[in-house]
Design a protein that fits this description.
It holds the Pfam family AHSA1. Belongs to the AHA1 family. This protein is an alpha+beta fold. It contains 4 helices and 8 strands; from the N terminus they run E-E-H-H-E-E-E-E-E-E-H-H.
Length: 173
Amino acid sequence: MSTSPTATGRKEQRADGTYVVLTRTFRAPIEDVWAAVTEPERLARWIGRWSGDPAQGTVQFEMLFEGEGVEPEEYTINVCDAPARLELTSHMAYDEQTPAIWHLKLDLAEADGVTTLTFAQSMDDPAMAENVGPGWEYYLDRLVAAETGGDPEAVDFDDYYPALSGRYRALVG
């Protein structure tokens, strides 16, 4: 793709901690965007896939575009209020030395035929933010490409990292 993506994330202090928040908009009904972020086949086009029985409260999620050897992670479904709100928690290791609890919140709202996805991840570690922030920009742009008839494979992670790293480190720092 060879573009210069812009860091769109903002820092929000919420009752349960510090979050990095990103938004994307879609000219699509809320139900369609909900399907893009919850249905395994649709997720597989831009980020990964889940398996398991969500009715049991957890799923296994496998990132598909992180290279070889990435193991699925268990996510607890804290809130699933279709088609407007999804909250997930994972006890994922950020790296070999840094365990992390990832709180992910997806809120969708539709107005005048446009659905806004607000994505938030708890994040108070600048070192983590400098890597994870550009990663979410990348994945959310892949989602936009997948949902607007573009090619998610044309979205190149090298355009996001390390170019946006400093912005996210400073944002959380």
